[in-house]
Structure formats: C-alpha cells, structure tokens
Amino acid sequence: MNLHALKLFHTVAQEGSVTRAAELLRISQPAVTMQIRNLEKEIGMQLLLPKGRGVMLTEAGQFVAEQASRLFALESEIDRSLIDLKSGVTGKLRIAATYLPANFLLPHWIASFKQDRQGVQVLLQTANAQETMLRLSRYEADLAIIGGGIETAPGILRSLLFEDPMWFVAPKGHALANKRELTLAEVMREPFIMREEGSRTREMLLALCKSANIDPPRAAVQWNGMNEAVRAVKAGVGLLFASASEVREDVQRGDVALVHVSGNHAVNPIAIYYREGEKLSQQAQAFLAIASHHHVHP
Questions:
Q1: Average per-residue pLDDT in the chain?
Q2: Taking the CA of residue 247 as centre, how many other CA atoms within 13 Å lie in the half-sphere pointing to its CB?
Q3: Residues 82-113, buried b or exposed e (16+ Cβ, 10 A)?
Q4: How far apart are CA 53 and CA 199, in angstroms?
Q5: Model confidence, pTM
Q6: What percent of the chain has pLDDT over 90?
Q7: For 90, which of 23, 119, 129, 261 could close a Cys bridge (C-beta 3.0–4.6 Å)?
Q8: Residues 6 or more apart from 172 whose CB is under 8 A from it?
Q9: E strands within 62-182?
Q10: Where in the chain is the domain with CATH 1.10.10.10?
Q11: Under CATH, what is the fold of the domain 91-162+269-292?
C-alpha cells in the first residue's frame, strides 16, 4: 500500500474535505484527488463519496481511515520515543558491578540518575570482577563498575572514580578501638574475621603483613560476604579489614569502631570501565557524569 497516498487519505478523512486537506498539506487539490483515486484502484474499493462541499467515507473508507489513524498515531509515538531515547530520558542502562559498588555506591548514584530520567530502565547485575568484565566485553552491559585493582581486558577502557581507604574495624568497646598510633604488628595479634580465599580484601591484608615482615593475623573465622562479616564484628567475633565504603555507616552509627593503624595507606580503587572506540549512549554518558562527580570522604 502506498503510504504517501494513505497519509493524504487520512488527512482528507479527518478534515472531511479534499480542499481543506490540500490546504493543510500545502499541495494542490487535483494532486490529492489523484493520489486517493490511485489508492482506491490499488485496494480495489471506493473510499470516498461526494457530500455537499465535502466528502463522506464509504464502509471501506471508514475501515481504512480507522486503521490509518492507528498507523500514523504509532508513527508519531515512534518519533517521540526516538527523540526521548536520543536525549537519554528513556531506554535502558545496563550496569555490571562488583559487590562493593553494587551495594554501597550504586543505590545512591542510581537514585540521582533517575531523578530526571524516570523513563530509563536501569538493569544492575552483580558478580565478581572477572565475570563483571566479561559481561562488559560480551555486550551484556553498557558500563562496568569494579572495586579493587584489576587489569583491563583488550578493548576496554578504565576510568578511576576514587580510591577508597582501607579501614580496620573492631567491635564497639574493644580495647584497641579509637586508640592512636597503633602498629600493624599490635593489631595483627588480634583475632580477625578473614574474607574467603581469592578475596581482594584478603589479598591486600596479607600483602600488608608481608611488606611489614610480620605474621598474618589469626583467623577467628572465615566469612564469605561483607554484610555477614560486619555482623560478625558487631557480635564481637574479631576485627575486620574492609573498604571504608563498606563500613562507613556502621562506624558513624557507632555499631563498630575504627582501629587506627599507623602508616596504613592502603586504598581500594573504584573504577568504571567501558568499551573502547564506541560512543556511549546518552544514558551511559549521564550516569558516567554522576559517578565521576561523586566524592567519598574518609
């Protein structure tokens, strides 16, 4: 079906007059009439009948007019949706993230992002660093946000957001809580809640001990998952080495206490990753701007 002719017929049906439709479309009346006659020949049915100075629709004309209204309403909706999509206020944003940013950073960033973009659907996937990077490489995510040092994969760019301080925390009321100038050796004599094998936090703690040439702490218990480990600290099981973002709210509430270790400058880099050589969507660009301007205060 000739969509141009259908558009002309649609306008005539709405106006009830070939003359008014021609004026509205800014084309000649004979041109409109010829296009509609061609459309009638194409479908094999008469669509219009003369009525006074205007026209009326035949039964076939009424059906075609109804369907044309649906079609061109959909066309307008597609145009509006594409404009919104291009401006970044609709569509989808897929984020892959490791545990720390997914649980302690992204909720606030997503809330800020959604303030002016309620129409954008944000899909968040949480996994370890390797799986998160893999999802980005496989085009299963638009952005990846990873806590901890990790080498970029080929074709992936890295942008450092900030370096999160690493803190030692203890149960409130602990003998070492809030004391100044403690040495690492003193703190390592205490029982620790150790993270699981392969954990970046565990590796950083063991590296600190190795660089200071002291024995690693005694593991009171090994715990998978930071929320569970923090609960163990609150229960008095032992000390914990954690990224500040993971325990900051607990410290501020007084549920756990800081243990100040002299010379502890360990940090946990939080970085955002995206594919090289590709233009980010408006949604991804907007989110990247929010994440990049976020500041964490130790």
A1: 88
A2: 29
A3: eebbeebbbbebbbbbbbbbbebbbeebbebb
A4: 82
A5: 0.68
A6: 52
A7: 119
A8: 234, 254, 255, 256, 257
A9: 90-97, 119-126, 143-147, 156-171
A10: 3-87
A11: D-Maltodextrin-Binding Protein; domain 2 (3.40.190)
CA separation (Å) from 113 to 51, 79, 273, 286? Answer: 57, 24, 18, 7
pLDDT tens-digit series, residues 95-114: 999 989 999 999 999 999 99
Quick one: average pLDDT of 124-143?
A: 90
The tokens describing 254, both together, are 């007084």
Pick the CATH number of 166-266 from 3.10.150.10, 3.50.50.60, 3.90.1720.10, 3.40.190.10: 3.40.190.10
Q: Is the pLDDT of residue 297 over 50?
A: no
Q: What is the pLDDT of residues 22-78, one digit of tens each?
A: 999 899 999 999 999 999 999 899 998 888 888 899 999 899 999 988 888 788 777
What is the C-alpha to C-alpha distance for residues 209 and 260, in angstroms, rounded to an integer? 16
Evaluate whether 45 touches 58 at the Cβ level (below 8 Å).
Answer: yes
140 burial class (0-12, 13-18, 19+ CB within 10 angstroms)? middle
Type of residue at 158: R
Taking each helix axis from N to C terminus, what angle separates 59-87 and 3-15, rounded to the nearest 10 degrees?
A: 110
